[in-house]
Amino acid sequence: MTAAAHWTIASVRSALQAKKISAKELTKDFYAQIERRNPELNAFLALSPDRAYEQADRVDARLARGEALPPLAGVPVAIKDVISTQGVRTTCGSKILENYVPPYDAIAIERLEAAGAVLMGKTNCDEFAMGSSTENSAYGRVRNPIALDRVPGGSSGGSAAAVAAGLAVAALGTDTGGSIRQPGACCGIPAMMPTYGRVSRYGLIAFASSLDRIGPFAGNVADTAAIMTVIAGHDANDSTSAALPVPDYAVEIEKPIQGVRIGVPEDYFGEGLDAEVKAKVEAGIALLERLGCRRIPLKMPHTEYAIATYYIIATAEASSNLARYDGVRYGLRVPGSTLTEMYRKTRERGFGPEVKRRIMLGTYALSAGYYDAYYLRAQKARSLIARDFSDAFQKVDAIITPTAPTPAFRLGEKTADPLQMYLADIYTVTGSLAGVPGISVPCGKTKTELPVGMQIFGSHFSEGRVLQLAHAFEKAGGASI
Amino acid sequence: MKITREEVLRVAELAQLELTTEEVELFRGQLDEILNYIGKLEELDVSNVEPMAQVLFTDVGSPTALATANEHPELRDDALRPCDVADAILAQAPDAAKPFFRVPKVIDR
User: Fold this and answer.
1) Residues in chain A within 8 Å Cβ distance of B30
2) Edge-first strand listing for the sheet containing A170-175
3) DSSP alpha helix (H) spans, A42-180
4) Nearest 5 degrees, angle CA A390-CA A257-CA A218?
């Protein structure tokens, strides 16, 4: 039982309970796989064996005492490197945080470990989660384990690649405009962005605070649901965290989907959508119909404004959030003879090109004379996009779209053209702006064996419904449609 | 042209970025292309639309759930809590002399 790719949360649990393997042996096996595959994939930036083996020992001790196991006991997980881990280097894929070791854990990390998960290490990502291919990391690009000449998507590409390659059973990513769902689609695994406010952002290093969300990657939908149950829920440390009860998503996903109304917005199937992706997602919708869902055509007329809106709001928030990297309190400092010179040299040396570009764009959009024309207008456009969703959810229970316009593209294909890269998020940013939950679920493969992702949006806090549809779809063979 | 070289330099100054000559030229072109694309938003009639400054939940189900999701349900007590973290925080500083962060001299006297 060492082929890491075959482990699930359920199989880890039963193997531990049947004493077929110890948590320590399992951890060791996973580290052996990481040692073997990571030089090629570059999915992990740092490993945390001390912490992992300590946790595995705790799980084994519980087993030895005959105690009940917590829900994720012994499950190896990987964490995107924008989520704070006490004592484990956290770089955000940036040179400016090259030696940063957080003094505290994110709440999502605390909750995973309290549930018995084994934290294997930190995964590579676009610098400060800004990108759609993981090629913007200061620590090198990540290869897609399904097709090594392709990107894994981004920005959570390391987390997606780690799970798809069997180097972790599950992983946490973050999604600001598509950074969980799009890499999930590229790497052929389920990937969920929860409702804004569902999972605490405490300890998530901020990119765009009104959009940032933490969510899971896993090998199947049931495991995605299990991680969600553990990490969701109110946290007093995050003032935007919602104090709503969290259902047991393992129970939710088994509920029947007969009669569920699925909306299909024509605006997501127009120009720019790859023909093979379109055909697969259409086949996916037909499968949901065969499973008893009712297809309802929709119009979401502001969809075409989403990328423009997103790239103003996200960059404006980023320019403000990233002002904290000034060489004073943590991270890189490049000396200067004056304070201002120190700030500027530090930021020039510490930030990569995409981060600088976004800080520039955001600063411009917020600057005197441009605020009304750009930032305020974008906030109003955001209202219209959110209204498209709330109008749709008067008529339907879920919305089905492609996750991304194309399958995983080639390494280097879009790096010279930032706007083309931004357009990879054209179907995901809408839900980010509206604050709704969404999942990408595998939906067949192209002729060249590249995975296609189908996206399911639900209304706010309807993660149970979204997961339920994804689970039924997966069980009915959606991944090989 | 949406953005000039001078504007790029002004924005870089506001953002405390010291760009190289090549970066100034590269960013001017790229920002120009992006701003042209963003110009799409001018097509929208937003005259009677409220700006969305934070995520509002309009579809959460019961009125109670909606109210709970939108309002802050439980502001935490304004109570003192132990916060003995100065050493851990200063340990991350590039230059510190407890209890201070050290920076280049700001005021000449």
Assistant:
1) 357, 418-419
2) A44-47, A118-123, A76-80, A170-175, A213-218, A191-193, A438-445, A451-458, A398-402, A261-265, A294-298
3) 49-64, 107-114, 157-164
4) 85
pLDDT of residue A78: 98
Chain B interface disruption, residue of A364, A394, A419, A425, most B CBs within 10 A: A364
A127: tokens are: 């610098």
Task: Find, in chain B, the residue whose alpha carbon is nearest to that of A350.
Answer: B17
Beta-carbon contacts below 8 Å between A and B = 188
pLDDT score of A2 = 40
- Point out the catalytic residue in the list A179, A241, A319, A462: A179
User: pTM here?
Assistant: 0.97
For chain A, residues with pLDDT lower than 50 are: 1-4
User: Residue A4: what pLDDT?
Assistant: 45
Is A443:A280 a contact under the CB 8 Å cutoff? yes
ipTM for this prediction:
0.94
User: A353-366 vs A306-321: helix axis angle to the nearest 10?
Assistant: 100
Q: Name which of A136, A347, A380 to mutate to probe chain B: the one with the most chain B Cβ atoms within 10 A of its Cβ.
A: A380
pLDDT, tens digit (0-9, with 9 covering 90-100), for B35-93 = 999 999 999 999 999 999 888 888 887 888 888 777 765 677 888 988 889 999 999 99
